[in-house]
Design goal:
The complex is a heterodimer of chains A (492) and B (314). With 492 residues, chain A is α/β, with parallel strands linked by helices. Chain B is mainly alpha-helical and 314 residues long. Chain B is 74% helix and 3% strand. Classes of the chains: A alpha/beta (492), B mainly alpha (314).
């Protein structure tokens, strides 16, 4: 049905897509995989009409098409759900679902009709909410589902999903995959872009891999397995992430004593993170994990006490936590982890730029040498340290955040979703770096919604459920079911 | 989308200020005072709504005051010096204002210039042109020979209500439906909150943004005619000075966010009313008139601060 031949797109001379071919048939789910920067997002945007390719051709049903804008693609029944949410929090759910295609009476909005139809579609995606609810009152996962509901509300022939499950819980993910199956049965052609190989394995009829902006190979249904996919993506076999449990965890470096967050003021959490261990923290979205981390880093106010190396510290702002040697790699890399328009160097040295200053003036040379040393050490791939962070891939951006804190010799490192949106190769490097730190006596507190990651990387697993610590499991006792049971609040 | 709480809040403040002023100086309630304040309220409200639309798209228009000055001069030249048909003159003024707005919209939406810069340039350019065209002399309408009816139609009252207020109410009613009930209004909010997302939804965001500036211009054109006859003389260097800032302040007091995507017509109208009553209060309570701007500035700060604090608590 849809066929791309030799599609090429350059930005400032650099090829984001280089001679890429793609075929898509009705009733077929094709997964597109590849590391960050491999060209997946550009490909989606070309098909969605956002970018006009520099070369190559596109055909729909055998006749050539040319997409100059997103509305051209919409008119042909091509619907893209982008990774960055495109829903608007100043409208209600129905307003978002019908944005750009409002039901009208004359030139006025027909709110009643839109809300009625929206209610039906919401039921289909398993979102039990009033269509008149303002979007600002919804969680991230719920907004993602609204985005999907919007796609379903229109006649769609080709549905493109770009990392649709990155903010969904396990249950919501299953619901989504089931929906994908239903749409496929209705004859919709689906392009599914995901880093989560489990999902790809579950839904894809065919896998198309991209590497360095080019086609890297295809897999048919019976060839799809983790090893084959990883090999196509990185172009080499990858050793499984090392998960050697620390032999003996040391003293508690960070202790949360009866800590209550603003989100869950009735739940007091007691938790220790010990020297030399990676504590994985699992839980469903909204279980209060990030809130706990933000409290410990002084972003949010809290009640209770924080002890670092046995001594109580009073933390009212991130500066207090930093002075105590407690650092946070936040969940939202682009929003809070980095100042993405600034250079790699400036981002690395930002928390401690005073070190390079005398009478308030920064010694640029010293600062640069320092930033260079640390980014080299953990192999940040960047043209130079003068490059704005925004030009780096997700994995390399995350390494810049890591470099910033490594340089400050952490006692405790809190990593909130450290590998979200990070490609396989960089993931392995980030795990390795976390392990090296732990071996050097740092206490690592890793919050993750990726079950595979939690089980593979952690020495000990703490599971949160609705603001309370539902339980902790030693690595040897931890199974996926065991963690899930705690996460959904069932007594173990 | 429509900050109901804020509209109610500003209505309460408006009533309190009115009551306070009326108790302190009963002249406030005299018909003449009410009609005079009403005239200004109507004029400011009309271009304030235009500014509100632009602010909802995430933009700003700093040129409104200079447009009032330039086109006020032009109106006087057309009617007095050239003796052009009054109806045609009004049409030319409103048309020219819309055209200037279209120019801003084009530069902002098509050439991606920043609204602040484009309209700041407009502020300077139109003010300079006004002085040049008028040879820096004050223009006026004298005894309005030949267009007496036009002066009547812009400055008198209809069943006791000043004409500018009547026009404001009509404009507000229409714009209320356009903004809060129509597809186009929905697009204004969508574009203001996240232009990229709106574009991805298939909305012609450039046209939507440009159209807001055209409407802002046209409404400034209507206000030009009313203001020129209200003052009856147009001093090219000062006529309309700072008016855009009062309009922006009223819109912000009424719940528009300068980040875009938020605001309501009722809020803008109430915000305008509050500002005009405050100016009247400074007058009636014999506060030194040099403090007028100071009082208004403090009220805006307190109003917006209160709103921010209340929002946090919710």
């Amino acid at each position: 049905m849809l066929s791309l031949r030799g599609v090429t797109k350059r930005f400032a001379g650099v090829a984001a897509l280089d001679d890429v071919d793609l075929e898509l048939d009705p009733g077929e789910v094709v997964a597109v995989i590849g590391e960050n920067g491999a060209g997946k997002s550009t490909l989606m945007k070309v098909i969605g009409g956002v970018y006009v390719p520099d070369a190559g051709s596109m055909e729909l049903d055998g006749s050539p098409i040319s997409l100059r804008s997103p509305s051209d693609a919409l008119a042909l029944g091509i619907r893209v759900i982008y990774q960055e949410l495109t829903v608007l929090d100043n409208l209600d759910i129905a307003g978002n679902v019908f944005l750009g295609r409002e039901k009208r009476r004359g030139w006025l909005l027909d709110e009643r009709e839109m809300r009625a139809e929206t209610a039906q579609i919401l039921a289909r995606v398993g979102l039990n909410l009033d269509p008149a609810r303002p979007l600002s009152a919804l969680s991230l996962a719920e907004r993602q589902l609204v985005e999907i509901a919007r796609a379903l509300s229109m006649s769609v022939r080709i549905l493109i999903l770009d990392e649709p499950t990155s903010s969904l819980t396990l249950e919501e993910t299953q619901k989504l995959l089931q929906l994908v199956g239903e749409l496929k049965a209705e004859g919709v052609a689906i392009l599914y872009v995901s880093h989560r190989l489990d999902e790809v394995h579950q839904v894809a009829d065919r896998v198309v891999a991209l590497r360095d902006a080019r086609n890297a190979g295809n897999l048919s249904r019976d060839e799809i397995n983790h090893a084959a996919m990883i090999k196509l993506m990185v172009g080499r076999d990858l050793a499984p992430a090392r998960g050697a449990a620390a032999e003996s965890a040391g003293e508690a470096r960070l202790k949360l004593d009866q800590l209550r967050t603003q989100r869950y003021p009735d739940e007091a959490v007691d938790l220790e993170i010990r020297a030399g261990e990676i504590l994985g923290m699992a839980g469903l979205v909204g279980a209060g994990r990030s809130e706990l981390a933000r409290a410990a880093f002084g972003v949010d106010r809290f009640q209770g006490a924080l002890l670092v190396d046995g001594k109580q510290v009073s933390v009212h702002a991130p500066r207090d936590a930093i002075n105590a040697g407690v650092y946070l790699i936040p969940e939202d890399r682009r929003g809070t982890g980095l100042t993405i328009e600034m250079t790699v160097r400036d981002n690395v040295t930002l928390p401690d730029v005073n070190e390079f200053a005398s009478i308030g003036l920064i010694n640029r040379r010293e600062e640069s040498e320092f930033a260079k040393a640390w980014t080299d050490r953990i192999k940040v791939k960047t043209a130079s340290i003068e490059t704005p962070v925004v030009n780096l891939s997700g994995g390399n951006q995350q390494k810049v955040v890591l470099a910033r804190w490594l340089a400050l010799k952490p006692k405790v490192l809190i990593c909130d979703e450290p590998t979200r949106g990070v490609d396989v190769g960089a993931k392995a490097e980030i795990y390795a770096e976390m392990r090296t730190l732990a071996d050097a006596g740092v206490a690592i507190w890793m919050i993750s919604s990726d079950m595979e990651e939690v089980l593979a990387v952690s020495d000990r697993i703490a599971v949160m459920h609705e603001g309370r610590l539902a339980g902790t499991l030693e690595k040897k006792d931890a199974t996926e079911e065991g963690v899930m049971r705690l996460a959904v609040g069932a007594s173990s | 989308m429509k900050p109901r709480g804020q509209e109610l809040g500003i209505l309460v403040i408006l009533l309190i200020v009115c009551t306070f002023t009326a108790i302190k100086n009963p002249v406030f309630l005299h018909l003449e005072n009410l009609q005079n304040t009403g005239q200004l309220f109507g004029i400011y409200g009309i271009f304030g709504i235009g500014l509100g639309l632009v602010i909802i798209t995430g933009g700003i228009d700093l040129s409104v005051g200079s447009v009032l000055g330039l086109l006020g001069v032009v109106l006087s030249i057309l009617l007095v010096d050239r003796q052009v048909n009054p109806l045609l003159s009004v049409a030319i003024v409103i048309g020219a204002a819309a055209l200037l707005g279209w120019g801003h919209g084009l530069l902002i939406a098509r050439f991606r210039m920043q609204p602040f810069i484009v309209t700041l340039s407009g502020l300077l350019i139109y003010r300079g042109l006004a002085r040049y065209v008028a040879h820096d002399e004050t223009k006026g309408f004298g005894d309005a020979k030949g267009f007496e009816w036009l002066r009547k139609a812009t400055t008198e009252s209809w069943h006791g209500v000043p004409i500018p207020v009547v026009i404001l109410l009509v404009v507000a009613a229409i714009m209320y439906i356009v903004l809060h009930r129509s597809v186009y209004g929905r697009y204004l909010f969508a574009v203001g909150r996240n232009e990229e997302a709106a574009r991805y939804a298939g909305i012609n965001t450039r046209a939507v943004i440009a159209s807001a500036y055209v409407m802002c211009g046209a409404l400034a054109g209507v206000a030009t005619v009313l203001l020129a006859f209200y003052t009856n003389s147009v001093s090219p260097s000062s006529h309309g000075n700072f008016y855009e800032l009062y309009g922006i302040a009223a819109a912000v007091l009424g719940g528009c966010s300068l980040r875009g995507g938020e605001g309501s017509i009722i809020g803008i109208v109430l915000g305008t009313a509050l500002l005009q009553v405050l100016r009247n209060l400074v007058n009636l309570l014999r506060i030194d008139s040099s403090l007028e701007m100071c009082v208004i500035g403090v009220v805006i700060l307190i109003g917006v601060l209160a709103d921010t604090l209340l929002r946090k608590r919710r």
